[in-house]
Amino acid sequence: MFPVKAYAALTPTSALVPFDFERRDLKEHDILLDIQYSGVCHSDLHQARDEWGGSIYPMVPGHEIVGRIAEVGKHVKKFKVGDTAGVGVMVDSCRVCKPCTDLTEQYCVEGMTGTYNGLERDKVTKAQGGYSTRIVTDERYVYNISDKLYLPGVAPLLCAGITTYSPLRYANVKPGDKVAVAGLGGLGHMAVKFAVSLGAEVTMLSTSKAKEADAKKLGAHHFVLSTDQAQMKKQESQFNVVVDCVSGNHDYAPYLKLLAVNGKLLVVGLPSEEPKLDPFQLVTNRRSIIGSMIGGSKETQEMLDYCAEKNIVADVEVIPMQYINEAYERMLKSDVKYRFVIDMASLK
Amino acid sequence: MFPVKAYAALTPTSALVPFDFERRDLKEHDILLDIQYSGVCHSDLHQARDEWGGSIYPMVPGHEIVGRIAEVGKHVKKFKVGDTAGVGVMVDSCRVCKPCTDLTEQYCVEGMTGTYNGLERDKVTKAQGGYSTRIVTDERYVYNISDKLYLPGVAPLLCAGITTYSPLRYANVKPGDKVAVAGLGGLGHMAVKFAVSLGAEVTMLSTSKAKEADAKKLGAHHFVLSTDQAQMKKQESQFNVVVDCVSGNHDYAPYLKLLAVNGKLLVVGLPSEEPKLDPFQLVTNRRSIIGSMIGGSKETQEMLDYCAEKNIVADVEVIPMQYINEAYERMLKSDVKYRFVIDMASLK
């Protein structure tokens, strides 16, 4: 067993506090990762505070994990000690259903095993996440990371990155396409970077004029103030793709209207109230709404390789572990550009 | 000018009554069609009664039109006198925008010209529909019809047929796919026939057990009572495609849940209240909701040729023009298998 230092939520209403526990011994296909950086995803906060229900305590959040391989099980093929590697939102799945054999394990028929806030497939061991010094994971759910990339900026690729990369690929975004991105946060800023890198003409949609300069710094070619009816009207039927990264409650109609013939609204933001959908807006221009959830093992590796090739990482603010409760408060106010990443050296 | 006998709605609340008017002289690319059969679509009733707003009276409904070419303009290429031909939901469009040049004129940027209840593109002439003895239409929006097919059954192909054929093709339904069809009416019965003809394994979803025998007669392989929670639960994540032909108010959630990874909910039924959409159901299995509206000139001809090859027509009840008001009442009670078609000889 490997002793681990971590930060955990002990109840839905208490602050995160230091927490020690043990990781399992390595099985034949497991690796031990010394965690160097762990991204802070909004869903960490949702789950730490039991906002989606069913949370299990004590909970060590974190599913944007990068570090160095410290040990390998005897049948591990992909990694050797010293490699830089990452763990994302899932650490296991049934491995035998069609989605699993297609390497889209995020849609596993039995349900994937989340990196934290659940049980591993033995139904006994608590899965605990990346706000910790070490993690033990089957190599199938661990990814190679190029040493060329700025490592703190790689961590958020494991969730925010793949969550936006996967639907842009599924929608076949290509050079010359017009792509709008709604919501400039952790997901939105990655969506802008990926869409630009794929050759699209990218427009940032935001309710705040103050975001225009930031959006352009990220590579967006245009900015539209989404609260300005006249500006939005001009954009109707202009886009091949709109990426909806807004997690606040909102209707789909204003985004649907922007879509040209065969246009696609990619939904990755998850509002808590169910948005209404005007079917007349949907049949106009043969529009689609497509949901998407992270990515499978194959596509996650592909995304990381693509980022290495294109030198894409997330924009991050590196923090010590001890700052996590302040970071949560600032995240709630969208006061971060665009992701907090914990330097785990602060716990060692 | 060509004198025409017809039936028209004069106000939103009065019954349809006999109505005489004149069609325009033939322009160079126009044809004159002697109408033999005209299908009765639910949207005829919606518009005759101004249920969607903006109706123009007197209104001659009807956009499922078949007959024989009686005269041709001097530059007409596709038709000669005596040919069997059809006119559908649109009779013109701008012809220069991208959707028009792509032959998806139903998504014309300026808006297509409907066959009735609107003005032609001269913004003066009232467009009047198929509950009439003759129609004058530009040949671009007129289709060749094989003489092999039962002509009254062809009329509904021009709306109900293309409305279901087009999204099934767009979703690339192929042999072995599992397709569910919700709603067994004019649209639903065509969706079943097309999905079966494309080689799919077809399940009828209905709130009425009484429809099981009918669905199987149409070729459906399975039947699921959609009000039975246990039956619906068993079908979760099983389908590649669900075709939603339900025009009554309903939620999308029960249909979304049926979709497997990459599954598509094809929306062609248009409820008057906006359905809610659970984004968690959408991101699960990377599901899509896709709207679709009739089909363009190229695909409409393709669909009619496909029907000739596969011997597909709608199941119809042929009625005289004078029966139209009773037919509307029966249509409101879904008391028709599955489309009324007016024999226009009854007006001559």
CATH architecture of the largest domain in chain A: Alpha-Beta Complex
How would you describe the shape of chain A? globular
CATH H-level homologous superfamily name of the largest domain in chain A: Medium-chain alcohol dehydrogenases, catalytic domain
Number of discrete helical segments of chain A = 11
> Looking at CATH, which topology of the largest domain in chain A would you report?
Quinone Oxidoreductase, Chain A, domain 1
Q: Assess the beta-strand content of chain A as a share of residues.
A: 25-35%
Radius of gyration of chain A: 20 Å
Oligomer: homodimer
Task: Point out poorly predicted stretches of chain A.
Answer: none
Series of H and E elements of chain A: EEEHEEEHEEEEEHHEHEHEHEHEHEHEHE
First and last CA, distance of chain A = 18 Å
Q: What is the name of the CATH class of the largest domain in chain A?
A: Alpha Beta
Quickly give the structural class of chain A.
alpha/beta
The main pleated sheet of chain A reads as: 7 strands, mixed
Mean pLDDT of chain A: 96
Biggest interface:
A-B, 36 and 36 residues
Number of strands of chain A: 19
Write down the domain tally of chain A: 2
Q: How much helix, percentage-wise, in residues of chain A?
A: 10-25%
